[in-house]
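Take a sample.
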Amino acid sequence: MSFARQLRAYISVGAFATLAHYSVLIGLVEGAHWPAVPATLCGYILGGGVAYVFNRRHTFKSAQSHARAGFRFALVALVGFCVTCVLMVLLVDQWSAPYLLAQIITTLVAMFLTFTLNRLWTFG
């Protein structure tokens, strides 16, 4: 699959995973009155599960074992998780940015980083 097609598929899967992530984030912040950082990290975990299943099957069409691909995906997700945590702490807690704007910025940064790592290493 071409780079452009993989990127489009990754963005489509990412939109679905992001919907799951943001649903948890907004539900916990607005409904349960959680702080934004722990709420977004909970959402990140759910979104990561959604992303693995659909990216493995549709974006990268990987035939690698779940043990190998799943482990590598988890490591890449951990990198994205750490980037998400650091950026949200900086943007929300340190710089008082609105949490949804901060999350949008964070999502874009994490998306391009994890796409590159997943394409080259996890499923490559």
Remarks:
- Residues 3-122 form one domain.
- The two ends are 11 Å apart (CA to CA).
